[in-house]
Every structure is written in C-alpha cells, then in structure tokens.
Amino acid sequence: MQIKEMIDTARHFEDGSLAGKFTDEEKAAVLYIELNSALAVLFSKTAKKMEGTELLASYCDVLCAFCRVGNHQKWTYLMLLSDEETDRMRHKWTSHSFAKLFMILQQQLNKSFFERQSEPFLHAWHILIKFGLVELGYTPTQIEEKYFEKFGNLSS
C-alpha cells in the first residue's frame, strides 16, 4: 500500500477541522476526537450492513484521520508498511465481532493519547489496516484509489 503517499496527502488535506484553532496540546486531543468520530461512523455503517463505495469512503475517512494524528504526533515513520507486511495482514483470521474490534481500537487510541505512547497507536493502526483488508475485503488497490479520489494525490 502507498502508506507514505497517503500520509503526505493527509498532511496537506484541509477539511475544515477544528484542530487549527487550538494550542498544540489541544490540537492533539481534537485530532484524536475526530479519529474516534470517524471510527464510530465507520462501525455504525458496518453494523447496518452497509457495503460498497459508501463504506469504503468511510474507511478512507478513518485512514485519513489516523494519518493526521500520526503526522501531528510525528509517528508516521512507524505507520509505514512493506508489501510483505500488508500481504501477511491480508491472510490473518477474520474477527467474529466488529463491536469488540471497535472497542479495542478505542482502548488503544485512548491509551496512546493519555499515556502519550506510540505503541498502542501503532497497534490500532495495524488493526485498522487488517480490518479493511480482511473483514471488509478490500484490496490495497481499492483502498488507495478511493483514498486518493477522496483526498487527492500529491504525487500525481
């Protein structure tokens, strides 16, 4: 997956976020809130058994929000994935409970924010990537195409 390009795009994407109106410390909190909000929307769509481009667009919203937090926290180098790592994720087992998966993501993100640690953030990132590839069944190409369609591609 073109993670680096996705991160760069998120760095330059301006979506009217409230984060620009706060101090640096408050900006981190707002970016985490926006990420949690995007996750909630995604998981409510999966609970309603939505499919297709609307669900993929929602997944890409979460990816962009993750990238924005990673950019702010200067953890983007941790988010990079090789093709081999992505391929390994594609062959992992399927979760039986999206609700539990959502709660684990929330827990890891909150731990990352409150303890200012990159490890839980990275764990949540890997869970999200695996969720898109395995549970939602998207290919890296489908994800990238929708992401860059929605947020632009700075490398083109």
TrEMBL record:
Top-level lineage group: Bacteria
Protein name: dUTPase
